[in-house]
């Protein structure tokens, strides 16, 4: 999903 | 995970390690902005609160912990262990001029009006400008040690590689995050002048000195 995706980044 | 993202993360890690080693080996933090280092620690603390709420991968958690510990370690070395060598006379950037507007903006422009999300947004915006005290310090003294310029090059490259990663992710996953992309571009643009000097001077074996 849109927001979960970015949270895998540092 | 793609190669741009991985090399970006490693470049970020390399930057932090270069700085730590420079301070440790020379027993001195001369020429390094403690204010930028405090801002980077604040960036990691506010961004990685999800360590406690959201497990993504072992890689993700381990890297977060390494970034947190090493950046706090740098602040400790600068403000405690090697405080006598800290060049505070030249580190005069007023960080409240960054933290206050960035704090305001993260309340106004975010994906979700929740505490964790606002703190994450704050950390993204703050990271984009956290290097300014360091660049300001170099512009005041007119020069940077070669090792400090390697640090800045690795640190600047990291977000530039993330931009390539975001382009790649957009085409392969249809994914993009406008807050991260805009802030990441601002962050990278701030390094452009430095990149130019690094390539034209430091890579040719000269010290980084600004024109008088």
TrEMBL record, chain B:
Stretches that traverse the bilayer: 65-82, 94-113, 119-138, 174-199
Keyword Transmembrane helix: yes
InterPro entries named in the record: ER_ret_rcpt (IPR000133)
Sample GO molecular function, one term: ER retention sequence binding
GO biological process, one term: protein retention in ER lumen
Primary residence: membrane
Membrane topology, record value: Multi-pass membrane protein
Localisation: Cytoplasmic vesicle, COPI-coated vesicle membrane; Endoplasmic reticulum membrane
UniProt cross-references to Pfam families, sorted A to Z: ER_lumen_recept
Entry's family note: Belongs to the ERD2 family.
Name assigned to this protein: ER lumen protein-retaining receptor
Lineage, uppermost ranks: Eukaryota, Metazoa, Chordata, Cephalochordata, Leptocardii
Protein encoded by which gene: LOC109481564
């Amino acid at each position: 999903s849109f927001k979960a995706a970015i949270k895998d980044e540092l | 995970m793609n190669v741009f993202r991985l090399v970006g993360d490693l470049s970020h890690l390399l930057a932090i390690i270069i700085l730590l080693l420079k301070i440790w080996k020379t027993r001195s933090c001369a020429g390094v902005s403690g204010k930028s280092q405090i801002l980077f620690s604040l960036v990691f603390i506010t961004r990685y609160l999800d360590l406690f709420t959201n497990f993504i991968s072992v890689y993700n958690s381990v890297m977060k912990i390494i970034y947190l510990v090493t950046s706090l370690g740098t602040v400790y070395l600068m403000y405690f262990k090697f405080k006598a060598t800290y060049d505070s006379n030249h580190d005069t950037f007023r960080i409240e001029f960054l933290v206050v507007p960035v704090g305001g903006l993260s309340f106004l422009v975010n994906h979700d009006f929740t505490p964790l999300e606002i703190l994450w947004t704050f950390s993204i915006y703050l990271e984009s400008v956290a290097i300014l005290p360091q660049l300001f310090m170099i512009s005041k003294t007119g020069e940077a040690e070669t090792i400090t310029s390697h640090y800045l090059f690795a640190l600047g490259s990291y977000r530039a590689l993330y931009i390539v990663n975001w382009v790649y992710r957009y085409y392969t996953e249809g994914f993009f995050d406008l807050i991260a992309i805009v802030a990441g571009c601002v962050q990278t643009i701030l390094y452009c002048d430095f990149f130019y000097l690094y390539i034209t001077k430091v890579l040719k074996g000269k010290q980084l000195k600004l024109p008088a």
